Amino acid sequence: MTYKKRLDGRAFNELRSMEAKVGVVPNACGSASFRMGKTWAIAAVYGPKEMIPRFLADPTTGVLRCHYNMMPFSGSGERIRPGSNRRSQEIALVMTKALEPVVDLSEFPNSVVDVYVELPQTDAGTRCAAISAASMALADAGIPMKDMVSSVAVGQVDGMVVADLNYNEEAYEEGAVSDIPVAMTHNTKAITLLQMDGEISKEDLLKALELAREVTEQIYELQKKALKEKFPK
């Protein structure tokens, strides 16, 4: 059986409704809000500042450090236990690795730039929304960047390649599902994040990555619009 119609009525290459805004956390050096469907990420940037603890400092460059947290009542299922856990630590590391290629901290040795992402509401694609929000927040903070990073989950549901899976599609039980979070730069379309949960053929994986290239451009345009609204000149 082939997945012929998406559960929420979207086209197979259609993203959920999106909303982006920068400057949402007054006391942060830079901040951003990014919504994709019911998934909502708020990112706040602090720094460059002195690295503490000092032994983690790099005398040749600054360090990017990401933090990820889902609020207790943000999930679609059971209440999320507050505080750090292995999943949040893993996603924080993934975020850092996805953003490091575009961030230039060479002028800030022995310093750190902290990016905190909180998710008040989630419905799949949380790491992707977090990366997109963090990229905007870094730009809002004036951190030197070579490019913007946009992120989305693509994949396959019962034989059909789709963009931006929601929670119900991730949990689809009538056919095989693969979930592939991807992050890409805008100018070069370099992949800075590629993970996968599930199985997919080589041919369909290539189709999914091509779909990711197309739809991340829509995310980038929204990110750019939000930044231009704050910095019109």
Word description of this protein:
With 233 residues, the chain is an alpha+beta fold. The chain has a single domain (18-223), classed as Ribosomal Protein S5, domain 2. Helix content is 27%, strand content 30%. The chain is built from 4 helices and 9 strands; from the N terminus they run ββββαβαββαββα. The strands form 2 sheets. Strands 1-2-3-5-4 form a 5-stranded mixed β-sheet. The chain has a 4-stranded antiparallel β-sheet with strand order 7-6-8-9, with helices on both faces. β2 and β3 form a beta hairpin. α2 runs parallel beside α4 (202-230). The longest helix has 29 residues, at 202-230. The chain is globular. The mean pLDDT is 93.
Q: Provide mean pLDDT, rounded.
A: 93
| CATH architecture tag | 2-Layer Sandwich
Supply the CATH class.
Answer: Alpha Beta
Tally of DSSP β-strands: 9
